[in-house]
Amino acid sequence: MNRPLQGELGDALGAVLGDMQQAITQLMQVLENERTALNAGNSDALGEAGAGKQKLMLQLEQLDAERQQLSREAPAAATRLDATWAQVLQGLRRCQQLNQSNGRAVNQRLGQVRQALSILTGHAGETGLYGPTGGLRGSLRSQVLAQA
Question: Which residues fall in a coiled-coil region (predicted)?
């Protein structure tokens, strides 16, 4: 392959990596916004964050496909840009940590809601148990929580 074409492929690869870094920065912000929405119990903001995460993940997948193609076509440029790629990977690891932290917060809240519901419905300690017929086992009784 001729030198000018290799240079153009290298430039394109550098641009793709730059686009990936921008998308990662945006994803970090969306994950921070998601955490804020979780802490505030703001369902509208959670929905926006979820949509934003999905959009950015699709964008990152597309950019990564381009990066892989360009790296195969211009291996010398890919080697020159190894430091930039390492920064991209570091950013992705940070996004993963933020997302896992948010997931733990969601699971904790979900557990609290399930516990409250089981108390209110009189099925405390019976969630997730199945009887011999395969149906959810538990009594259908309600309990008086307070009397006037």
Answer: 53-80
